[in-house]
Every structure is written in C-alpha cells, then in structure tokens.
Amino acid sequence: MLRALGPWRCRIDGDDMPQTRLPRAFAPVCVPLLLVAVGSAPAAAQEVSTRVSRTTNADGSASVTAAGALNGWSAAEFGVDLSVSAAPVTVVQPRSNLPWNATDTSGAVAWAKVAMPGVSNLLFWDKGAVDVRLDPLQDKSQLGTSFSREWDLGGHISAQVSDSYAVTLAPTSSGEGWSSDKSLSLNVHETGTRFSLGTSVASDRHTWLPSVSAQQNLIGPLVLTTTVADTGTEINRSITAGFHSTW
C-alpha cells in the first residue's frame, strides 16, 4: 500500500523503502511529463540504428557509450555507458602509489531515453525527454527530465539552451539526492566548434558550480574537448579526445 507521508515523500507498507524529499520545483516537471512521454509512445518499434563513441583521458582511462535508437517509438534511445580504468602501472615510480594499491574505477550504467512530443505547444522548450539510468554496481537508479531549445543565428551559427533535473534513488538515504544542470552553448557548424557555459547544483551542495568548455571536431570522427569546471573545492582543468561513429 502506498502511503503519503508529506510533501514529496511516500512509503510502501511492508517494505523497508527509503523516503526521499524532493524540491517543490521538481513537481510540475517529472511526474506529468513522464505520463505524457509514456502515454504518447506507439506500441511497436520500426527501425533501429546504433552508434558507438569513445573518449580517452590523459591518465589513460576511457569512457565508451554503445547506444541504439528506436526511430519508430517516439525517438526512444537505449544504451550502456562504460567507464574503463587506466591500465595498471607495473613499475614503481617515485612519488607515485604502489602498483598493487591502484583502485579500479571501471563501471557500467544502463540507460533509456524517451522523447516527449508536444513539448513546444505547452512550454518554452522545443524538445524534451525522460531519462532513466540504472547502475547495478553502485545499486542506484536515476529518473530525470531534460529540455532544450535551439535558435538559428544565421551564418552557420546556432545557440542552444538546455535544462535538466534528476532524482537519484538508492537503498540507503545517504545515496539519494537530486541535481539540476543548466547550460548555454554556441555552435559554429562551418568549423565544427562548440562553446558551452554551464552550471549545476545538487542536494548535497546548495551552491551553483560553473563550468566552461570548448569542443572542436578535428579529422573525421575525432573530437577534442577542453573543460574548466569549479568542483567546489578546486578548479578542475581537463583535455579529452574521443571519436563518434554511427552505423
């Protein structure tokens, strides 16, 4: 039996389920749009397309995304995000951790995304989607919504504003929380350049943290990304290279 315990909390009697409190701003976003997305999707898929992308970091670690799209089912996508740790160092180096003390940070997250038709008729945004992510290694799941709007500025230049909200569920209350991200990007299509300015906030830190990034398409599917982000304790600077392939 589902029992209400107050604003944005619930409990299923008989089960030891954690109680999650969400900001009131999430109310008009998550629940109604989830119902719209699920209810408006056709019953059967028609075509499936797949894509694979890989990003390699300077420390040797990498992230790989393998995804598929059901083009006939409300532009639904599904896939797996893989994080691969750097190869262990077998030689002891000065001022470095011993090889056998290296931590394996590899992991995998399954996800699905369904577009929400008709968003432009109801809201400021022209695109919207419902996202679900499952992390079996961390025993966590995430439900979120994302919105975006794009303008053509002429001269092969476009601007895009995006907004996203997410709720994380876990067996323990310490692993639960919410987050929100907002970004503004400028795309120069002729040169394959993208500049982005973003900010994020989460339940464990009520301070908006900014970030700036620049992405450049080099040769073929090769992409170079430079990012400067405020983590709350330090300024993180990174340069990553990756490729994107679709078939």
Distance between the termini: 47 Å
**Considering the protein shown, what is the CATH homologous superfamily?**
monomeric porin ompg
Largest sheet: 12 strands, antiparallel, barrel
Q: How many DSSP helices?
A: 2
What is the helix content?
under 10%
Q: What name does the CATH topology carry?
A: Porin
Tell how many strands the DSSP assignment holds: 14
Contiguous uncertain segments of 5+ residues: 1-45
Radius of gyration: 20 Å
What is the count of distinct domains?
Answer: 1
Order of strands across the main sheet: 3-4-5-6-7-8-9-10-11-12-13-14
Mean pLDDT: 76
Sketch the topology as an H/E string, one letter per element: EEHEEEEHEEEEEEEE
The CATH architecture: Beta Barrel
Strand content: over 45%
CATH class: Mainly Beta
Care to describe what's here?
7% of the residues lie in helices and 56% in strands. It is mainly beta. It has one domain: Porin, CATH 2.40.160. The strands form two sheets. Strands 3-4-5-6-7-8-9-10-11-12-13-14 form a twelve-stranded antiparallel barrel. Mean pLDDT is 76; it is low at 1-45.
What are the main properties of this structure?
247 residues; 12-stranded antiparallel β-barrel; two-stranded antiparallel ribbon; globular; disordered N terminus
What is the structure about, briefly put?
The chain has 247 residues and is mainly beta.
Per-chain topology:
Blueprint: E1 2-6, E2 9-12, H1 27-39, E3 48-56, E4 62-70, E5 76-84, E6 107-115, H2 119-122, E7 127-135, E8 140-154, E9 157-169, E10 177-188, E11 193-202, E12 205-217, E13 222-230, E14 235-246
Antiparallel strand pairs: 1-2, 3-4, 3-14, 4-5, 5-6, 6-7, 7-8, 8-9, 9-10, 10-11, 11-12, 12-13, 13-14
